[in-house]
Amino acid sequence: MPRVSINPLLPAPSNPPVPLPQVPGPKLEPFTPTAHADIEFLMYLGRDEDKDSYVWKVNINGNGPYALKMFKFNTWEYLGQCYGRWLSKRLAKPQFYADYFDPFNCECRVYGRLKQEQREELAVRSHGYLLLSSEQAHQVANLMGRSRDDPDDDDPATLYGHNFWDRDEQHRGHPVKAIVKEFVSDGGEGFNKTQVAKLWDDLKEFRKLGILVRDITIHNYIGGKLIDFSRAWTVYHPLFDWTTDSHVTDHLEMEAQELIDLLYTWARVTDQSGFKLPKGLKEHSMGEDESTDLNPGLYDWRKWEADQEAAQIFVDKTLVEKVDE
Ligand SMILES: Nc1ncnc2c1ncn2[C@@H]1O[C@H](COP(=O)(O)OP(=O)(O)OP(=O)(O)O)[C@@H](O)[C@H]1O
Ligand SMILES: [Mg+2]
């Protein structure tokens, strides 16, 4: 798939920093007033298979430890190809693909909503976002053994996305964005027998808060809590308003099925004889659950907007008719 896009460029995050992303709905605040900080990189926490980010144990301005999730770049065309097919309309600006579908922004919106609703205990906590200096971005690449023929992100005349941070021409000069999280050292990856009963209850709570997590794997839980929201959709989200009802149902069922697969695998690997799925989960995954309160699209996001009318006008202009190709 060609990934070059000279135009249009995406705007860099504003300076001084603002809560992100800058669209109606929940946002994440910067961790420091400038969104910059001294970072001491202590240890890599992720795995080779991680796609969206590099996660490190760090100290920040002499305090810590924290977990710092540093996000790779995605072109808006790539995000449009991945997700645009479910939309019955087209997003009006390239930036909107980043605002609603880029992994960094997806996580910001989840943490923003958990804060609005004072439900931060549902996940491993986030403390805000940071922007890496280019020296820090180079330092991480070097610490992780970037190969010699992987040039520094800003050197080549044209950036094609084939570099450590997947930086494309449209991201030239943009800082790498990162989210500061509570570092969880105990509990380990996944969950234990006591925590397993709560996993479906927690996912239902997320949905009632207007959040569909959409990425349920053992690696995305630590000590029974979710840590990874890079695929999550949080309302207001165009995917809930501008798609067919059957697509929304498909996504709800897919997420429930991911949890079922995960639980059966866990029960087999940990030898849980007589393991039973939580009540209602199987029915939900098969579309037999009639309850509508589990559709995140029904969440009243407008109640948090200072100017509800302006927010509605903004989202009404977020999509435009698709042009026939
Ligand atoms: N707060 C944390 N404390 C300790 N370890 C963490 C923390 N957050 C993440 N990790 C470790 O880093 C790994 C990767 O984190 P995460 O799942 O958030 O990113 P990712 O896998 O790159 O995202 P994606 O799954 O979308 O590709 C986790 O599986 C976990 O082992
Ligand atoms: Mg993950």
UniProtKB/TrEMBL annotation:
Cross-referenced InterPro entries: Sim4_Fta2 (IPR025213)
Matching Pfam families: FTA2
Name of this protein: Aminoglycoside phosphotransferase domain-containing protein
Source organism of this protein record: Podospora pseudoanserina
